[in-house]
Amino acid sequence: MSRAALPAALLLLLQLLVLLGALRRAGAAAGHSAEDAPHSHERGPGQSHWSYEDRQEWASRYPDCGGTMQSPIGIDTAETVFSPQLRPIQLAGYSLPSKETLKLKNNGHTVVLELPESLAITSGYAQQYRAVQLHLHWGSLAGPGSEHTVNNHRFPAEIHVVHYNTKYDNIEEAMVHPDGLAVLGAFLQVGPRENPYYRQILEHLYKIQGEDEEVFVPGFNIAGLLPANLNLYFRYNGSLTTPPCYQTVKWTVFNQTVQLSQDQMSVLVTTLRGDDNSPLQNNFRELQKLHGRHVLASFQTTLTWVKELPPPGGDSSSEAGAEKHTSSFQAGDVLAVLFGVLFAITALAFLLYVHKHRNQNTRLDSPTKSKVIYTAATTDENAV
Ligand SMILES: *[C@@H]1O[C@H](CO)[C@@H](O)[C@H](O)[C@H]1NC(C)=O
Ligand SMILES: *[C@@H]1O[C@H](CO)[C@@H](O)[C@H](O)[C@H]1NC(C)=O
């Protein structure tokens, strides 16, 4: 009885492991960028290798980068649509005790501060969002490097705090759905004083100068990195600004800016190194076309004009873009399952052979059998 049941149970376990492995690889192949998906750190087979120098080629490997709802955009305040229903952004759980340490990492494209899931946006969006990470974009000593612009003005730097919709289990799942992500963006400028919140990040940068270096830093009030006034902002539908450029971000770009001292700004733009050890600078993407999108404003940008509201739901291309992505993700799933099943069949044949062979010769103990199976699974890992 138990002799017959054991191989069957082990086989089931093996199948499960293989399927899980295949699914995980399919997820990685869907192309999570190191910047925007902090939990997918692996550099897959040539997957997350991209740079700001080859921006024009992003779309050939990551189709969404060539879509019609891309970010960043140039915000023209005269063209924004005042929307009184855009309530002030409210944050919860942003003030972290210093005993809670956070990972700060140079991923070769930017500096990323990983955030605990206790941080949330509780108002200002139709749904609830949880924080995952924040990162920065900057220029160099010679020029500014914000991603968005306002009235053709590019600011020295920009912070992005990335959140995902709580109706999804994790950011990997959320980032492929049209309502998956909410990013809070704010512009950094030079002011007269040192900014004590940015100090909590900047004073550690020298320890993570090289790509993939990381350090743990004490918690602090993360909200201090954003403007004091969270009532005034722009809102539009856009994308991740790095590959895979998924068009799943509901953007908030604050109208108030954040000020750092000149010294702090210099530390930000000169300390880190990226790929091939060159200075990590000008890590911003060029402006993307609106393709008919509207930018809403939570406030009246001009007092004298009364604007007509645009017809609602005019942008059908957004739906197409989202659908296209969903179906390619499902195709990946199907492939993964197919490979898993194929391998399981191979493993079954192999196991039957081993089992038969053993029965014909000396009977071996179960510990040795599990060792054989473990070897088979390991071989698969290396082969795929
Ligand atoms: C963003 O897209 C959603 C879904 O298509 C739509 O309801 C919403 O009005 C859009 N928001 C903006 C700011 O255009
Ligand atoms: C904030 O809004 C005002 C009024 O429209 C505009 O002049 C200014 O450029 C905006 N600044 C930012 C950073 O959005």
TrEMBL record:
<comment type="function">
    <text>Reversible hydration of carbon dioxide.</text>
</comment>
<comment type="similarity">
    <text>Belongs to the alpha-carbonic anhydrase family.</text>
</comment>
<protein>
    <recommendedName>
        <fullName>Carbonic anhydrase</fullName>
        <ecNumber>4.2.1.1</ecNumber>
    </recommendedName>
</protein>
<dbReference type="InterPro" id="IPR036398">
    <property type="entry name" value="CA_dom_sf"/>
</dbReference>
<feature type="domain" description="Alpha-carbonic anhydrase">
    <location>
        <begin position="48"/>
        <end position="299"/>
    </location>
</feature>
<keyword id="KW-0732">Signal</keyword>
<dbReference type="InterPro" id="IPR018338">
    <property type="entry name" value="Carbonic_anhydrase_a-class_CS"/>
</dbReference>
<keyword id="KW-0812">Transmembrane</keyword>
<keyword id="KW-0472">Membrane</keyword>
<feature type="signal peptide">
    <location>
        <begin position="1"/>
        <end position="28"/>
    </location>
</feature>
<dbReference type="InterPro" id="IPR023561">
    <property type="entry name" value="Carbonic_anhydrase_a-class"/>
</dbReference>
<keyword id="KW-0862">Zinc</keyword>
<dbReference type="InterPro" id="IPR001148">
    <property type="entry name" value="CA_dom"/>
</dbReference>
<feature type="compositionally biased region" description="Basic and acidic residues">
    <location>
        <begin position="33"/>
        <end position="44"/>
    </location>
</feature>
<keyword id="KW-0456">Lyase</keyword>
<feature type="transmembrane region" description="Helical">
    <location>
        <begin position="334"/>
        <end position="354"/>
    </location>
</feature>
<dbReference type="Pfam" id="PF00194">
    <property type="entry name" value="Carb_anhydrase"/>
</dbReference>
<keyword id="KW-0479">Metal-binding</keyword>
<feature type="region of interest" description="Disordered">
    <location>
        <begin position="32"/>
        <end position="53"/>
    </location>
</feature>
<keyword id="KW-1133">Transmembrane helix</keyword>
